[in-house]
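User: Predict the complex.
Assistant: Input components as received:
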Amino acid sequence: MKDLQLKSHRFRAEREGDWRKLESLLGKGERGRARSLTDEELLQIPVLYRAAASSLSVARATSLDASLIAYLESLTTRGYFFVYGPRTKFAQRVTRFFRHDWPAAVAGLWRETAISAAIFIIAAAAAYFLVLRDNAWYDSMVGGMAQGRDFAASTESLKKVLYDNDSGHFLGGFAIFLFTHNAQVSILCFALGFAFGVPTALFMAEQGLVLGAMLALYASRGLGWQLGGWLMIHGATELYACILAGAAGFRIGWAVAFPGEKTRLDAASEAGRHAGVVMIGVVIMLIVAGLLEGIGRQTILLDWARYAIAGVTLTLWLGFFYLPRREAR
Amino acid sequence: MTAVLPASPTAAAPARRGLFGRRLRPKPVYVDPQNHLVREFVTPEGVDLRLQLGSAGERAAAFVLDGVIITVAFIILILTAVSAASAFGFEGEGAEFVGAIELMAAFFLRSFYFIFFELRPSAATPGKMALGLRVAARDGGRLTSEAIFTRNALREIEVFMPATLLMLGWLMSMGGAEAVDGWTVLAGIVWTGIFLLFPLFNRDRLRVGDLLAGTWVVKAPRRALAADLASDAAERLARFAFTPEQAAAYGVKELQVLEDVLRRRDPRTLAAVADRIRRKIDWTAGPGEHDADFLAAYYAALRGRLESRLLFGHRRKDKFDKA
């Protein structure tokens, strides 16, 4: 009687147990409960996966059961993504990011960083001199961001903004506002790089213009040094992050416009991944900047202390990114 | 571990010419001519997984689902924050606390919802999971966190920025302060259109974010193992004795249609199909013969016959294939 059974049926009956076992193990693993798998089970998955892959090959060649082949295709695909998926633990990945990936990505982006910084600084300088010569430039450059800080304001009120410690407010909330706003802006600045980097360049220039015009306003009242402290306590971090976001955008724009020897698609995705590392870092820098600006600046009112913090943070960032280090394994 | 795009034809095909004799790129050759979204994808074990890419419709549906989830989560968070704050009183700090929570929630849901879920082992947001989709690296390598960050950061210019612009424009025109410039609206629509429809203009259904991150979205549905229709073949074939000629009336295509019919078990279809097959193979139904029984037996006979031919290297495509 047994000989009358179809060969493909016997083939399935012999292996079905292993397939179901793989399916249940994958189900556990995919739900993120990889830790609930025992060591033995983890070792079994690749073996069972390879068996399923070979079953798929055999089934395609010998079985005409369409639903069986569809099942094996789905099972093998799931197995493939599990077995060849990211294997490092989250903690390991985070450590690697800080120790190697992030600084290496930023250092590898030095050319774009220089361009991005140059655009920003040139725009700031241009705005500074233009506004000093003719105050009418101020409104067109700063516009809505002035919030009363313009040439009509008294020196007293301008000074008050710099040393107002807002003690009655929930400073954490202010820090969060600053962080979310800045992060959104830099992600946008980065994403716009896709259009050959042109909007990113405009964006960087605009940021520079606002800064330069503001500096000119305060400098004309003899408050330039004080404004510097007020800005740089967090600006050393925030502006740096902003410049890096612009640089990441330029990298993408450059790769899309001039892919070199690679295909445009390959060049774009390589640049996209590299810039992605930098951008994860930018978000982290902006969290730091938000805390410095929202809490640090409102509680530290001495100019020299503000400059000291600016200097220290800038040195730390530069050292972290550009100091040569041993190759990570 | 390579994902091979449809190879260009190796034979020296005559160059296709478009309007005014413009030379066109050769037509791509698809793995499966019936379904242009199937890609050859060979694992290190040498098995071709024949990955199927998510269609534009599925992608859009997944995105809409995620949008609904984000909105609901946001509303729940805000309501919770408000009720928590009302315990402290709404003056001063309470209101600022709610404001801070609102900002945080909006930012993290907008920027990190997709990233968080795609970083998990299933590499899919709840919306994608519901549609059986997942993100994968195009080159067959590992899906890295920076790739996930990049593909989702680009949503900012694909969706959120134009949406914000249009919303702003709408609010301004409602407020009646100053009607938004028609050109601005047009620019917003064109911009959104380019990015929104981008997946429709390339073979791999890549978003701009996918393009930059080196990823694509593939189907990885969970399928349950259905019962084998030929499990009681021996017993059935003992009752229904088909001659070799009768068992050889059809090919693989008809066998799979029959499999489908048997799995659905719709009585009227069963009756119609049984009738057709009986006529084709000159089978006279015995007394009290059930259509479903007959079909199951014929399925087993046909599959047995075709599979044994398959072992000798003959794959009979359909009933017209006489080889």
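Chain B has two domains: 56-219, 233-311.
Let me know if you want any component modeled separately.
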